[in-house]
């Protein structure tokens, strides 16, 4: 059996564990010092902006496309394996257009997506008001609707991935902190191999190490003398309950405009978010309540009925943003033959988790075939 150790159980680590659990001949162990989805995953909104993204080629689009094509089958698999319901909004994403927006750009994107097998629709203001009467803002001139994009509850998704992975035989070790690694130089090469993971619960032998610990990936890679620089970017959001149903009960997509999301949850509840807050010159980052207020006011400006909504809770989380390279970081760790990085997804961890897991699986299987 090929032993794979995965460090980090946010949505990315959980997705990798699940995908690897479907491969015969792999003995997979998942490590996290906390419970699943305790980090940036638990603070995300789960808005999967794939087809509606302006990316049309290159790695960014390939990852988005692969994830979106996997999501529907993945959710169905998880529901069947776990027997649990999994909140999953398949009513698409509605992106608001304003007077300053370039209409031609959207028309070109619609043509590109059509050639790629994806559908986008351009709504004029009259059609938009008919479909979403809760939207009342004079700045809005129309919208772009993406029926194939989705939204999923990040914590529920992560927990379902872990449950399914366990059912498939993955060993889960939560509450253990990874302290160090045992490595050796490959004979006749400048590369090294990681052979053991040292944790507060003992040592574990491995043939492959996957680091998917978000911001925790920085100290892990530093201990391997190949620091991957990740910086925190804070995001804040709100969970509210409106006094009455908003809009058409049969058409409840995620609504997004000016980088603010209104995410319907059912039962007249919504997530509103999220802020984007960078560290100061000292590297410190603290939640700015004024920015969260701005998000709420922006959402109300789109949908005035939200002004009377009750705030059920607010929360924040830190997203891992790579410094000096593009997000995400999915590659071998420099100088190591059997250490893989799957981290630094910044604001797209939920969206890109399935594609990341598939790429990690492909890398391990391809390298094992060549051994």
Notes on the structure:
Strand 10 (178-185) and strand 11 form a beta hairpin. The strands form 4 sheets. The protein has an 8-stranded mixed beta sheet. The protein has a 6-stranded mixed beta sheet with strand order 9-2-1-13-20-19, sandwiched between helices. The chain is globular, with a radius of gyration of 22 Å. It is 31% helix and 31% strand. It has helices spanning 11-21, 58-82, 103-116, 125-131, 154-167, 217-223, 289-302, 349-370, and strands spanning 2-7, 26-32, 47-48, 88-89, 93-98, 121-124, 140-146, 150-152, 171-174, 178-185, 192-199, 202-205, 208-211, 230-241, 254-257, 260-266, 269-273, 310-322, 329-332, 339-343. By secondary structure, it is an alpha+beta fold.
Task: Estimate the helix proportion, in percent.
Answer: 25-40%
Give the overall form.
globular
Arrangement of strands in the largest sheet: 6-7-5-15-16-17-14-18
SSE ordering: EHEEHEEHEHEEHEEEEEHEEEEHEEEH
Number of helices: 8
What class, by secondary structure content? alpha+beta
Stretches where pLDDT is under 50 for at least 5 consecutive residues are none
- Number of beta strands: 20
Query: Termini separation (Å)?
Result: 14 Å
Tell me the strand percentage band: 25-35%
The radius of gyration is 22 Å
Let me know the largest β-sheet: 8 strands, mixed
User: Would you tell me the overall average pLDDT?
Assistant: 97
Describe the structure in brief.
31% of the residues lie in helices and 31% in strands.
Could you list some keywords that capture this structure?
371 residues, alpha+beta, 8-stranded mixed β-sheet, 8 helices
